[in-house]
Design brief:
Monooxygenase; disordered C terminus; mainly alpha; about 75% helix
Length: about 100
């Protein structure tokens, strides 16, 4: 039963980690994050931070490690939202480079 749980956990972690990559690529390519919800990603970053703390407290390095990757990726989206929030450049609305 442990092998099945490990395979399912690994699959879940890989899906969670890779789910942010297309959004990051789209924002960087278009330099537009106006459709990204700032509140949603603020809550997501907070959630991953709490999952990391939980994983460390219970001594589960797979939980902590996969959530560290998710935190880095969702944090990247949050930074890009602040940078390209209104589209076409910086969040101030000025034209991009």
């Amino acid at each position: 039963m442990t092998l099945i749980a490990d395979v399912i956990g690994t699959g879940a972690a890989l899906c969670s980690m890779t789910s942010f990559v297309p959004q990051i690529a789209k924002i960087r390519r278009e330099r537009d994050a106006s459709s990204v919800s700032l509140k949603m990603y603020a809550v997501t970053v907070t959630g991953f931070s709490l999952w990391i703390a939980y994983g460390l407290l219970i001594g589960s390095w797979p939980v902590a490690g996969s959530n560290m990757v998710c935190l880095a990726l969702s944090g990247t989206i949050l930074v890009l939202k602040w940078r390209y929030g209104s589209g076409g450049g910086l969040a101030t609305g000025k034209p991009g480079p």
